[in-house]
């Protein structure tokens, strides 16, 4: 039996496009001699569709699309993921539809619903009966949407096919591979996992659909971060790739992260019908990296940088930003912020009085950051650009950023990327030639909102901060567990204290592309009001 | 058997305060002759604690608090809600702990976990075994945390006690009462529901713990939006109030909404250790109402209004705002925004060029709104005020508001309140004397960002808009269903189209006090990227 894996990038609720892609893949698989073609979980609707799953109009459109797809399965079978509404009970399941001879022959429904990260299934789906067997050209195939299989139902099948929506994070793929290999080995049966590819808002699906062999383990996979199509043959329990295998070692962890962020930006723009990105350039490493990623995702001709020096900006900051723009070949403008800043100081003088006005504090720093935000948003409004936010996860965790100032933007590119990863990514961008100015990478990080300011005046240095944040956030360890691992108790306690006060800011920062196990505002869900550390 | 209901306002994770309140109530109940005292669901920890429930430090603190509470139950029994970690499996349940003779005698665990609105239980709790019976002084009592009871277990008990966390919305109480009455009648047994009181960030718990009688239906309840304590006697299956009964008809729907919002503001400030509120006053009805609610919640001495007239503000707007401040007796300042506005126009001139600068569009309106936001945030930073957002749900649904402009603030007071409800609430504020100037209520709503502007230039009038929004959002009806109810097809389609484009703004607006069945960003969860209407 020959089968094809079709790994596609869907758009949520765009039934015309999704259905066309699926039917074209069915036709192409048939033309190439496949007996069966496989699609990912919730392929027909795109996922996660969230509250759209509560709309009867949406569910009717799913039904129509499914019928059209089924009708196209005349001389070939397919298994495709879709929300499935039971016509008698009206209940909605997360289904894998087996289409054969022009109709939906069987519906397998997901049993273990998933509520991790930004995936929310229990509010929308009813738990179904789980894995089930079908037969294609004499091969017995087990279809599942669940992680855990019950042994009895997996007995005596020739192949296990799992439809997935596994979002990318820099730890998830290894866990996924280990799980698949373990299941395959335990059941002594080969296993195929078909994964969605493409970014859906904050979530980035990496594709990398895999085939494992119960004896060898890893066998073959499809591309990362791209649509792909591949043919395999199953004889008895034996698997064979009908096309060249993929080299597994192509990507380093940093390269994967880079590709994920590029896809995240590109799909956010493409799927929303947007084109041009606007970035506030400080000459620092965060905004430089965001500009580099945006150029890769959208083309330098669709990127514009705005340099907004203040009285505290160093000369080299402007030069670094100009060098960056010239290296990548994107347009930039310089808008000094002194005029706006002075106007606010004058407007506020009568309110603050002589005493308050004399004492320069965080207020004046925030005014600078907010004047920049007004400038960026005005250019965005007038010229049709979308502002990309440039703050990172280390700053977000510490509340180091100005709400409605540097924290503005339609989407946060680095909001789930630690500062140490920002450095690694910048060096990766420069792997062949120096595109991000070396000085922007090597200078001490600074917000440049007062004379001589350094991030390390207010925060632990990033080499100390990031590993502790990683243990707190990604590993969910307590202060005492982290101290036991050898970190300084005072530093850990200071970080926990600072982090406990950022909830209200995180509530209003732009949605961030998710690349870690626990992104703020998705994996992490803290009460707005609570007694915290 | 005498029992007491203790309806308390807890603070999430503040174990010292919560434990003290619970133990004092136990002692007071004992002193008044009660055999049993009842507390609400998750009383010990406060709820919803969200990701704090994943912290072992937090769960250890719960254990310690529970032991201390149990030890105080020497001559009296109590039933108290708390997260319960099973010591062998490590799994965490939503538990009702029956404490007697100084220790935890029995743990009843919630079976049907709830993921409605802002309550998220499945990510944190394991589903338990559900209702169970205990015996107190010869009375057989069924304890439950679930809505649905299985008949067999409810057989032959004298009383059903349900611990709850039912947040307020203007439809939920009636549904709750109907459910309780139906269960009580069906099982021919009296029923007690103990509810949490107090606001926890966006969620406002209304208390109103109730006692129903299987024969009469409604029997008695505790106060709305306040802590309360009340004694009852159970003899056989017969219930008796040992204190004066509450008049059920005290509150109109508008009065309840008013009290809910006041409590929402007060607890947000109290529980976060905040004191002073800052409000941008336009002279319009939304900001006037927010000021009125803030004065009631925090005292006029803790409220400050900032009037920020632009070149398009009408003279009467300033006068209305001044009258408002004088009527309530709160402080205000006038900061005209022309200086800031002109500075931005000048800064942006070189970027926009002659052509773009000549064409005045939404950009210039947004600059005005954002200049106001910078002023408000600067005063907030310098003088320690917390900015209250003043936009309403009708505007939010239509995307009628400027991100980082009038959409700033720590918390949105009216973000879940439709404009027509804003009018009703304002008339309620004026029920005894005219506090909100009549002119602010009666004039045509306007953002005053360009000459002669009215909301109705961009939006359907609120009398048409709000009923359609209610059907779309709260009732989750489709366009065709709404048209069938007699609404104009073009208007409905226009509203659906406008609403489908607001997702990205809703992602970054302040958290809103939730008072409807489906608040944005809580009840409503739309994909950031999707093909929408």
Automatic annotation (TrEMBL), chains A, B:
The lineage of its organism: Bacteria, Pseudomonadati, Bacteroidota, Sphingobacteriia, Sphingobacteriales. It comes from the Bacteria. Pathway: Cofactor biosynthesis; NAD(+) biosynthesis; NAD(+) from deamido-NAD(+) (L-Gln route): step 1/1. GO terms for molecular function: NAD+ synthase (glutamine-hydrolyzing) activity. This is Glutamine-dependent NAD(+) synthetase. It comes from Albibacterium profundi. InterPro entries: C-N_Hydrolase, C-N_Hydrolase_sf, Gln-dep_NAD_synthase, NAD/GMP_synthase, NAD_synthase, Rossmann-like_a/b/a_fold. Belongs to the NAD synthetase family. ATP binds at residues 280-287, 390. Transmembrane segments: none annotated. Residues 1-248 form the CN hydrolase domain. Its EC number is 6.3.5.1. The keyword ATP-binding applies. The keyword ATP-binding applies. The active site is at residues 41, 110. NCBIfam families: nadE (TIGR00552), PRK13981.1 (NF010588). Deamido-NAD(+) binds at residues 366, 395, 505.
